[in-house]
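WARN retry 2 of 3 for item q-0093 after timeout on previous attempt; input resubmitted unchanged.
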Amino acid sequence: MIGLPGSTGPRVHPEPVAHPSGRRRVAGRPDGRGRWLRRATGPRRTRAAHARRHRDRRRRRLRMNLTLGCRATHLDPAARTVTLADGERLDYDGLIIATGLRPRHLPFGRDLVGVHVLRTLDEALSLRAQLLSGPRVVVIGAGFLGTEIAATTRGLGLDVTLVGVERTPLARQLGTQVGGLVAELHQEHGVRLCMSRSVTGLRGAAGRVSAVELDDGTSLPADLVVVAIGSVPAVDWLADSGLPLGDGVLCDSTCRVAPGIYAAGDVANWPHPLTSARTRLEQRLNATQQAITAARNLLAGPTGATPYAPVPFGWTDQFHAKIQFHGWCPMDARVEYVDGDPQARKFVALHHAGGRVVGALGWNSARTLHAYHDHIAAPVAA
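OK item q-0093 returned
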């Protein structure tokens, strides 16, 4: 398996079926999580050491070789080999591609001190260290990562501005109606919002970022800038492999890409049976579930493989709000509040599109939301 082990990447199933070769090989590098921004001190070493020992015991039990800090650079499906950055060539009988994502960057300002993306643990630790000085923060991008960073840094008492190209935060992820409630939540906690705006430049002084320039002429003073404008599937190393690529690695409904090759996680793009459209999900739960399905289907072979048809599930915690959703929440969906009150910030809403319920969202309503899971993709009554 070639991947990026970590919180958003696939995990090895604790009880895999043995492959005839009897060996597993995982190559990749560790990933980071935004929760590190909230910690005032480093990780608890005792707990970390215990976790490492547990992982080591599991790897020995699985007879798995783990190679970290070394990228895959070339795939030859005909020869069934993967070449690593250090020149080592790995032979395989079966391959799972789980290389995840790489963050998008602005086309300017990357050389300025104080400009960050947040993907790896090292990036999270660097960002956290600079937050301790109490900087003025501008977050560019109002998706899940951007809004969570804005909420977290504002919770630290910092001056925070959130910039997004849509009308509301989380518009693409949760729709504009719920996004409007997210905007109110952030404003109530003192986050300054600049929505329907694009960034045209970053200004610097003495090599450090000093301001963010917007398309309406506004200049936002900034000591620290976090760029959270999305990610792209990490498929560059597959460009000359002959595999079908598009928005990720193109699979069939069983996650199969080519003979002996499957894909899972953020990089996998497959036709979802519920939507009849190609889907690529950047969600932690999907990465875990799809990895299990891909591994099982690889070992079962094409005749024993089963389609992967999950109902997506995701969540975000911001200030005092826990927002969870099943399915999809399109921007143009009709939103029906079926429990609670949006003004009370405790409700469940169904999202309708194409004559069906395609999503269910709960705001501080985890227990109630669960009852609506089976409504997803159900026809709407006339």
